[in-house]
Amino acid sequence: MDMQKLLAGIEAAARGAGRIMLEADDVRSVVTEKEGHGNFVTAYDKRVQAYLFAELARVLPEAKFIGEEDGADAFTDDDRRGFAFCVDPIDGTTNFLTGYRPSVTSIALLHDGKPLLGVVYNPYADMMFSAVRGGGAALNGAPIRSSEEPLARSVVSFGTAPYYPELAQRTFAVCADYLPRCIDLRRSGTAAWDLCCCAMGATGLYYELELQLWDYAAAGLIAEEAGCRVTGLGGSPLPWDGPSSVICASAGVAREDYFPRVSLSPPDACGGAASP
Ligand code: IPD
């Protein structure tokens, strides 16, 4: 299989998705609510997903397809065999809806349940992140590496797991733990973007107590390939087939600074109980 050709095809699809996002108008008039607190979907999420489905089917016809707007939040046994695309058509839907930026398109290609290729595109800044397993990560075609700075000289970003209000207290307890140990905190509104920011060295660490596969599949691979450590908050490897908590740290963050120094119990809400 020609990986570079495959990557070029997926990037072209991501650019097309970005064009739909850039041309969107009157977004607030085409919004509906999904299950979960503040969980919206716009007609553009569905339009971009349908567009990607058609384009990616041309790129790799034998691949299965799992997308945020399908409703399923985990791979079936069948999805785990062979090739499968996992897509978040618009990661950062709330940003998209409100005009807060950025929002990105996220496309992962998995093979036998493991990420093989990841593409994340921010159309507002024309930034195309990509990675092929074992081949490093790139931004607009140029290699990227995560930061070598220690936690004390890094920015930490986090996600609020907004659709799970029951995780709010633990999320902010972790913020309070990191804040005095880093330069400052950021909350962007898109998990895929947050992971890419860690991959390109803009931040030193990112965490969120609950993400869906389509939020982390592409950008998790990009971060790993840029030299980041990426696991569940309990230290277990990412499952790559369904929801998980996610913590990602750049190469410079010391092992003892990787995990928050607060209790995250119950551990099964936070990605397994393995120790660092
Ligand atoms: C959300 C964003 C957000 C994160 C949520 C995700 P969506 O994805 O990535 O930053 O905090 O956990 O679900 O719903 O905008 O595709």
What are the distinct ligands in this entry? D-MYO-inositol-1-phosphate
Average residue pLDDT: 92
- Structural class comes to alpha+beta
Helix count from the secondary structure assignment = 7
Radius of gyration, Cα only, in angstroms?
17 Å
Strand content: 25-35%
The number of strands is: 14
Helix share of residues? Answer: 25-40%
Shape estimate? globular
Which segments are poorly predicted (pLDDT under 50) over 5 or more consecutive residues?
Answer: 267-276
Largest sheet: 7 strands, mixed
End-to-end separation in angstroms reads 37 Å
Following the backbone from N to C, one meets helices and strands in this order, namely: HEEHEEHEEEEEEHEHEHEEH
Record the strand order, biggest sheet: 3-4-5-6-7-8-9
Structural commentary:
With 276 residues, this protein is of the alpha+beta class. The protein is built from 7 helices and 14 strands. The strands form 3 sheets. The chain has a 7-stranded mixed beta sheet, sandwiched between helices. A hairpin with a 2-residue loop joins β8 (137-139) and β9 (142-144). α1 runs antiparallel to α2 (43-59) and α5 runs parallel beside α6. The longest helix has 21 residues, at 3-23. Mean pLDDT is 92; it is low at 267-276. The structure holds D-MYO-inositol-1-phosphate (IPD).
